[in-house]
Design a protein that fits this description.
It contains 9 helices and 62 strands. By secondary structure, the protein is mainly β. The strands form 17 sheets. Strands 42, 43, 44, 45 and 46 form a 5-stranded antiparallel β-sheet that branches. One of its GO terms (biological process) is maturation of SSU-rRNA from tricistronic rRNA transcript (SSU-rRNA, 5.8S rRNA, LSU-rRNA).
Length: 884
Amino acid sequence: MDIHRCRFVPYPASAINAVAFSHSSLPTTLASRPQLLKHVQVRLAIGRANGDIEIWNPLNGLWHQELIIPGGKSRSVDGLVWITDADEETSNGKTILGKSRLFSIGYTSAVTEWDLEKAKPKTYASGQHGEIWCLGAQPPVLGKNGVVLPSARKLVAGTVDGNLVLYSTEDDDLKFVKSLIRTPSKNTKMICIAFQTRNVVVVGCSNSNIGVYDIRNGTLLRQMSLGAGVPGAPKSIIAWSVKCLPRGDIVSGDSTGHVCIWDGKTYTQAQRIQSHTQDVLCLAVNADGTQIVSGGMDRRTVLYEPRAGHAGRWSKVFHRRYHAHDVKAMASFEGKGMSVVVSGGPDTSPVVYPFRTAGKENHRVLSHLPQQTNLQSAPKARLVISWWGNEIRIWHLLHPARRLLDGDTTGTDIRKNRKLIAQIQVQGESNITSAAISADGTLLLASTATEVKAFQLHYDGTSQIHIRKVEVTGASHGATKVEISPDSHWAFWVEEGVKIMIARVITTESETGLVHTISAPRKLPRIRRVVPKHLALGGLGSYDRKVSQVAFSPDSKMLSVADLAGYIDSWVLRAPGELQNGTEDKSDTSSSDSSENSLDESEEEAAERWYPNPKGKLLPKLDTAPVVLTFSPGHNEEDGDYTLIAITASKDLFVFNPLRGALSDWSRRNPSSKLPEQFRLSRDPIKGVVWQGPRAWVYGHSFLTMLDLSQDLPEPSDTGRDGAKKGTKRKRHDHNAGAGGKINKEHSLVPQQIKAATAPDSNEYMDVDMDDQKSVGASSAYEDDDDDTDGGELQRLRDDATTNGEDARKEASKPKTWNTYQYRPILGIVPLASKPPKEKKKKNGEAKQETVDTLPPLEVALVERPTWDLDLPARYLADGEWER
């Protein structure tokens, strides 16, 4: 494989402004009914400064990014709040789990509710007030034994002009109700908010005060003063964050670096802890109120616990520096065996660290890059497209990498082997959700939340590119995903997250060249999945039926999609009469869509149509959401079937023969337990696959693995087929709280070690920078397998790709797997067309092929986007100094 290692494709990741879990801890009502725990859909929402909202599934520590809702022009997300309604009991004794709803603010006067299934705003509400700076959700009503009772829940927002306003969420709607209170001073800003009880709210302000209000009548119950600022600092102290402990006490973090504990009954200050050298920006507390975590501008994350033998007193346990910049937002979750805190800031990467087992488990840094790569290629034209915001960039890679490496192209710098030939600005308020380019580089699709747009491209490789807009009818609802078939005859998109739309691309010749037109789309029927109503109506509803993966077969005659629930649907392109009895199998399609799914009888009888795969209903449901869905090149030589590969978020790999509706023989012989250990045990999520004949090059954010599917995988040396050691009973995995796994005993970090590292009998604490791989407790899970990937093991794989097919000895020594961590972090890998090896002349003048290919040549563009290449603001270093 020849690699163009690129960093020229930009992806300006944005700062994290807000994080929120759909359940801060699982409701007490579920503790007595553990059978419902498996149906609770816990999600993490992350809001960024560019308006993007990311939805993550914790998956017991796997952390799968399921969805990105793109922002829009001049938008930002600065606060997120989930509301989970009470459970409902049906007449047949079933329990409908409470519905989860997500709300956001963005320094405007509006509150937005989001539709996760359609990946777009559901509704807005606004009142006669200034910009909203903080938002809180009213706690539910608890009955006996902690059971959540049905009740209306309101949202309370604090504004920049000192207003405290009320919003209603009743009847599955969002409405502005009234303004509760207005502070007399126009310079007073409401910065942060937390509920102490259902009707009492605590608000941190910019005027050195924390106010306690009764939301029923807007009465100010008590005002707590933070004092005056220190000499040389601003006169007023800003309360950046407030939290309430379960027993009613209040915790605040302010601009002086102090964390204050307030008595919840008398509203007096009980304790003041100087734990930060700069502003404390965020706080998190655990479910039982026995742990507090704070994050600040000094990049510190500090843990506090109650002091033994001193009731009501807290002490700092330790602090570390997980982030490379400010710690701006923080949220915690406990339940389902997990206890974690997730934080973020301007360094763009979410960090997960253990809460209950702090100091005993490693932290984990999630990638700042998207799970679904914003990168595609047109191999035949050597074009690469990337997109972000409302802009698409088109690049041309001039010369093949092999010619540059071999020196055949003299005078060309490999770092300058590219040309930016076009930038397309998609008009509208919404950002791009997906984009695709045809293999020949003549058709480009782009979608937003409101429309699908198409562009025809003409580029001969030397002159200026010509771009013409192509009309797309019937795409006024926008799309969450678009794709173009390999033969460029079909345009595909997903409307509202679940509707599969496909349209024929008609190409005609004119005096100026090829002209593309797109016909009216048809909706393809999906297999009806029987989901009990008591589950479909609660939680996140039909969100898990959202289509997340799509794949066309290499001959463009089969289409397959997969959703977050793990279901796979497939369709085949056939002429009438080509299927059995010439009819379509509709036995499993939804009757409610029959009018839209019916075939257009006015079409010509000879026209090809898409039919549901008759054996598609036999494909099993995957245990977790698929992160990769792809067809291998060519057909199965034995039965002419396709080979469909699905890789899940839990690192399970399945190979299907979709026309038979069954697992392939290779997949039966090679269960996931036989996959390479580096692949199975890596916590890095998988992003995509590039094919080289039967070889699958699987990549994630920081690894590249080759799997040869023409050979059986080697049996692990010390494990059996089930993954357990031979001759021993299979043991359960070590307990993992959901972060980075257990710390080795020799790396365990306890308070005594921190104090001893500074000075004997000292109360000073050492800064432990977790970015340093040599830091105590830092995880070093990824180490390079080779010093020079381009010249060492990878070169051997290149040579193997051109091995003489008649050499049995070399054929038997072909590698089955290979792995490297040299490239990181990877935005994406896309294929480019390569020319076959040149023929060389013998001395006698006869032509001779240099090698006989057993594998097709493969050239790819590998794009890295390291965090050090991001444009970040200045950060606080130490001792009052700022980065210059």
